């Protein structure tokens, strides 16, 4: 069968022949309908992810897909390289799959689960969000950030959601998706600092979801800091999730002493193992149901699997998830 095959870390995958999956021990061969290209697969293949060293090479990339089971049911399924999801066919355990509502298209169903599970945990577990609270999403223009904005507003009842990003066109779309306000992260520092300070003064941020780190995170932490020993206490949970703007920051020690900042992270190792069961039992069914009734939306671009190398080397528009569909 044809698949997106990675032969060497740091190189893009090629559309090439891969081993045909063989049914075994309750696992069945399903036809892949759509597999999303996410940052985690890009980072693993690039060799820049902490898990890259464990990627068996050569391998078929892709951690999840929408598939058709042999009995015709359309479901969402997980995958593990070397038998990844960016292929014509995939070995799946039908018991571990999730049904997809008829009104949800393949591309949206493939695009959202990873982002949804992460955004949900970031808000509920790491952010400990409460109804009416004020949320800042740094990098709200991205796929995961956009979903975090929607979930914060429409699932967790945030009182105010501010989305910050550098892509002005995409910020407009984020307003349509539910952000109460947006901040353009332009090249000049002062306007960004002034807008952050205004929003924090109006309705102090309770939760910050940070998909950027780097300079934007430094701006926010400076905004949260106090310069007055008598300043009132306000707890802000700063949740570190992605590093699109830089892998490191400068953080003056006094910032953490001057305000109620709680610096936490969201990722594989920062969520208790027992919570992962909720992704299948609770979180993804809720996300599919919100997609089905239009409460949340995904912006996707469908490309043929045969174009995987081009997909890998070209940037997708901001906030749009590319979904690979096998050529039939
Ligand atoms: N830990 C987890 O559980 C988890 C889960 C999902 C994602 N993530 C991470 O979170 C990050 C975002 O994921 P995503 O799925 O939303 O990615 P995405 O769809 O590729 O979006 C990335 C966004 O970041 C913006 N951006 C890039 N560099 C920037 C900069 N220097 N300043 C401001 N904005 C910048 C991009 O805007 P432009 O269009 O302007 O480039 C784009 O809107 C990634 O690092 C990803 O690996 C972590």
From TrEMBL:
Residues 10-324 form the Enoyl reductase (ER) domain. Transmembrane segments: none annotated. One of its GO terms (molecular function) is oxidoreductase activity. It comes from the Bacteria. SMART domains: PKS_ER (SM00829). This is Zinc-binding alcohol dehydrogenase family protein. It comes from Solicola gregarius.
């Amino acid at each position: 069968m044809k698949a997106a095959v990675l032969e060497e870390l740091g190189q893009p995958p090629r559309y090439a022949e891969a081993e045909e999956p063989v049914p075994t021990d309750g696992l069945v061969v399903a036809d892949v309908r759509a597999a999303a290209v996410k940052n985690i697969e890009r980072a693993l293949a690039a060799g820049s992810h902490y898990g890259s060293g464990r990627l068996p090479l050569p391998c078929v990339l892709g951690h999840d897909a929408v598939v058709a089971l042999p009995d015709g049911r359309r479901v969402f399924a997980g995958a593990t390289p070397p038998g990844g999801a960016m292929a014509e066919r995939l070995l799946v355990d039908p018991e571990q799959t999730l049904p997809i509502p008829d009104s949800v298209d393949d591309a949206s169903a493939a695009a959202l689960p990873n982002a949804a599970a992460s955004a949900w945990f970031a808000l509920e577990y790491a952010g400990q969000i409460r109804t009416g609270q004020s949320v800042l999403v740094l990098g709200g223009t991205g796929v995961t950030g956009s979903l975090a904005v929607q979930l914060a507003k429409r699932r967790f009842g945030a009182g105010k959601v501010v989305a910050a990003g550098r892509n002005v066109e995409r910020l407009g779309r984020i307003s349509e998706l539910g952000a109460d306000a947006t901040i353009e992260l332009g090249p000049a520092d002062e306007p960004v600092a002034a807008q952050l300070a205004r929003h924090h003064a109006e309705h102090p941020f309770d939760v910050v979801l940070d998909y950027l780190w780097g300079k934007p995170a430094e701006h926010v932490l400076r905004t949260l800091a106090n310069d007055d020993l008598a300043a009132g206490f306000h707890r802000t949970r700063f949740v570190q999730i992605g590093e699109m703007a830089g892998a490191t920051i400068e953080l003056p020690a006094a910032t953490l002493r001057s305000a109620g900042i709680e610096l936490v992270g969201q990722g594989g190792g920062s969520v208790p193992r027992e919570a992962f069961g909720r992704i299948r039992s609770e979180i993804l069914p809720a996300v599919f149901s919100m997609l089905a009734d239009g409460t949340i939306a995904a912006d996707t671009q469908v490309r043929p699997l045969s174009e995987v190398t081009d997909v890998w080397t070209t940037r997708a528009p901001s906030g749009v998830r590319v979904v690979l569909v096998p050529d039939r």
